[in-house]
Amino acid sequence: MAEIKNAKVEQRQTKIRNVPVAVTPEGFWCCPSPVAFQKTLKSHNSLTKHKQSSPPLQPPKPEKKPSSTTIRSVIASDETQQNLGSFDTVHSIAVPATVQERPQRQKVETLPRKVAIEFGEPGSSDAKVILVGKQGFCVKLSVHKKVLVDHSCFFAKKLAEKDSVFACLEIESCEDAELYVETIGLMYCKDMKQRLMKQNVSRVLRVLKVAELLGFSSCIQSCLDYLEAVPWVGEEEEEKVISSILRLKTEGVGVTPVLKRVASNAVDPPKETLSRIIELVLRSKEEKSRREMKSIVLKLLREQNGANVADNFNDTIYSSCQTCLDSVLSLFKQASEGEKPETDTKQIAVEADNLTWLLDVLAERQAAEEFSVTWANQKELALLHEKLPLMSRYHISRVTSRLFIGIGRGELLPSKDTRLLLLTTWLQPLFNDYNWLQHGCRSFDGKLVEEGIGRTILTLPLEDQQSILLSWLGSFLNGGDGCPNLQRAFEVWWRRSFIRPYSDRQANGSCQTDSTSKEE
Predict the structure, then answer these.
(1) Domain ranges, ordered by start, for the chain
(2) Residues 6+ apart with CB under 8 A from 335
(3) How far apart are CA 101 and CA 164, in angstroms?
(4) Which residues does the annotated region (Disordered) include (predicted)?
(5) DSSP-derived pairing of the beta strands 115-120 and 137-143
(6) Tens-place pLDDT, residues 205-259
């Protein structure tokens, strides 16, 4: 391919823009500022729009993106060829630009070039690289064979095929000419790391892509070192980095340090780590930090939805629950004996909040039935509850409230005996503490609790519903707003019991069946 001469290009009315060349202290040509590309592209686009005549040109059809299966097959093919030492094929599906040689094609000098930018020093160079962009946009680089051969296996392969003293390579359909110029310019940089530090993550990923296409291994490694050290801002940027790294198919480069930021050798988070996190959160002495971390851990577990969590993690939660229950029982005993009442009240509130949070975690993991059984059987704790002042004990009723909400929502499905025992043991203590819960607990949702209690009662046999709701009626008539409002559950029970009971409907159904058979 012959050298492109400025004189012949001018005859074609091509606008050539000479851009100042950045020179390193060693005298090498270095990659220019991207501002030159942006200004030239803008002016080129405006001229193109101005010269368009009617009817307007049809826009080019967008190229179809390769499927993941196609990409994988190309990667496998490329890896096989690399292992065999073959460089005969350049896949246009995986690269935005392809380098092609057409011996019988019209010479480059005679091709129409609308806009051209030239970088480098033609007087001292012995090779040219021509980047042909869309709509005839052309960039010419005056470069040196030795630099290209030393840094790029791709250029080394292409230049080895040329016998002429002055070599000229053309890269057609180049969608990212700016990054090709910058990547080739990095071959002249003594310290690529210093140059990359001035760029952002998105631009370095583009450089990495071009460097891989050119076989520029030292640049690939410098980009990976940059990506390993620089912070990734946001999940979107992290996904871009990881996907770009996973698509790399160049052998001999270390991608593991970058990937270690998001993956480890362990398939699942170890049980010991999760146990340590739970323990640190539960034992925190700072209320605000403890509350925030509980919210974060619960949110993260909810997002995981059971994925990548150790199967025996529930055992860890139940072990923590038992520890909290033992602590609450001990504190109730101390408070009932009058030992350090203020300290006991604060600690009881902390342990009650811990139990409620652990119950939230178990409910998210659909594993709270065992907790309901354990709580329903805390008869000693329920008896001590009556002996403590309201201010000291009411926090513990939050655990009962959370259980009723969970049953009402269907988050846990304890057996009928467990539901009845839970109501028998803890409903009256909840009635006694309800007024304090409404006014002393900011996170308490009375409507939600009332709905949960009512739904739990209505899951029992009709006789048990009657017993519990009549007991509630006496408390409600005496306590007013200080007692949960279970009127909806009361109405449902009333209709079930007095307005055409199921036994009457069953009897009527059997009578209708008998009369029908007689008529027949």
Answers:
(1) 113-176, 189-263, 271-499
(2) 341, 344, 345, 348, 388, 392, 393
(3) 14
(4) 43-69
(5) parallel
(6) 999 999 888 888 889 888 988 888 889 988 888 888 888 888 887 666 677 888 8
